[in-house]
Amino acid sequence: MKPDFFYTAVKKEKAILVGIQYKHLRKEQTKEYLDELAALIFSAGASVAGIITQSLDYPNPRTFLGEGKMDELVTMVAYHEADIVVFDDELAPSQIRNIEKHFKEIKIIDRSMLILDIFAKNAKTAQAKTQVELAQNQYLLPRLTNMWTHLSKQKGGIGMKGPGETEIETDRRVIRSNISKLKEQLEVIEKQNKVQRQSRTDKKRVALVGYTNVGKSTIMNLLSNAGILAENKLFATLDSTVRKVVFEHTEEPGRFTPFLLSDTVGFIRKLPTLLIESFKSTLAEAVEADLLLHVVDISHPEFENQMALVKQTLFEIGAKDKAVLLVFNKVDDYFKNNPDNVLAEFENSWLSKEHSPVVFISAQEKTNIDMLRQKILQMIS
Ligand SMILES: Nc1nc2c(ncn2[C@@H]2O[C@H](COP(=O)(O)OP(=O)(O)OP(=O)(O)O)[C@@H](O)[C@H]2O)c(=O)[nH]1
Ligand SMILES: [Mg+2]
């Protein structure tokens, strides 16, 4: 660790969150969405100073918020001495330009940009880094003319990492050639990975998939001692890790079944399409798996919507018609808040609802892990 006096990290940025209370959404849902945006801000290393919402049918085409609300936002930013304003929906380049006119030295970003930033921060392998860089360049291309030219480049922090950094790169031609170079690099990496995957085809393959922060990496570590970073941040995992796991059949001691288990990048609502596109090859582990463990955080108020989104995303990347074991995780948290519910009843209701095998566990408390092992074994044997 560096001594304190060498520590030169930029100060923790303060953000104001902006969301629309759409007429078709319940109030609690809008709150959940903004809570998620706050979790993204936290994962990016910044803090939330304030939240502003407006009831609208659709965003104002010029400034996202209406005139009066915009004044309120300006006051709020000044009061909290905020550094960033984050909008929960994607902003059009012209909206960014119009909003920026209201501020000095304030970064205006949208949800996509924030997610890209977290990905840039957390990417470790060459593949993940290249994929993020590709998505960033593609995101930047249509927005080149007005990306914070009013900000001093030394500022650092969210959104200042990556291709936005230097003057020369704000040239469309450079961005275009970056994009084609990155695509070529990815092709090379993907070819190597494919060879690697093909060399493992003799074994059954199981992939952990699910919404971000549901506990995929915790389960991976529990089943395989993989030593993967698991933390209460969104998108802690960006690279798929594969481990060989050997389970012994409880009813037949001495009989072992080996398989390959992989951890994958989490999903989130409104994941920038560019990221899905560029992460397709990372998600190949899920597409080519024999069994998917769809992990759900049952303690989360939005868990059913999260499940639906995961199914939709799996469909989009071509991982449909797969054997799926639904793993409801964090039952410890769930039963803390719903002490009257009975696990067996719950299990039955979901079994009839989903028509696919389900298992309820707590990866943290190590509850029901034997049941999870048994079900995996049943499904791959
Ligand atoms: N209460 C409770 N917390 C859990 C449980 N399993 C995991 N967690 C916590 O949930 C947080 C997220 O866990 P991860 O394993 O990193 O989740 P992930 O799905 O890999 O998340 P990403 O890689 O960021 O998409 C961590 O703080 C874990 O300690 C559980 O059974 N109960
Ligand atoms: Mg993870």
Protein architecture, described:
The protein is of the alpha/beta class and 381 residues long. It has three domains: 12-117, Rossmann fold; 121-184, no CATH class; 200-380, P-loop containing nucleotide triphosphate hydrolases (Rossmann fold, 3-Layer(aba) Sandwich), CATH 3.40.50.300. Helices cover 41% and strands 18% of the residues. The strands form two sheets. The chain has a six-stranded mixed sheet, with helices on both faces. A four-stranded parallel sheet has the order 2-1-3-4, with helices on both faces. Helix 1 (27-43) runs parallel beside helix 4, helix 4 packs antiparallel against helix 5 (126-140) and helix 5 (126-140) runs antiparallel to helix 6. Bound molecules: guanosine-5'-triphosphate and magnesium ion. Guanosine-5'-triphosphate is lined by residues 210, 212-218, 230-232, 234-237, 266, 329-330, 332-333, 362-364.
The averaged pLDDT comes out at 85
| Gyration radius from CA atoms, angstroms | 22 Å
DSSP strand count? 10
Per CATH, the class of the largest domain reads Alpha Beta
Bound molecules: guanosine-5'-triphosphate, magnesium ion
Examine the secondary-structure arrangement and name the CATH architecture of the largest domain. 3-Layer(aba) Sandwich
Helix share bin: 40-55%
Helix/strand order: EHEHEHEHHHEHEEHHEHEHHEH
The span between the termini is 47 Å
Write out the CATH superfamily name of the largest domain: P-loop containing nucleotide triphosphate hydrolases
CATH level-3 fold name of the largest domain: Rossmann fold
Q: Which structural category do the helix and sheet elements fall into?
A: alpha/beta
Domain module count: 3
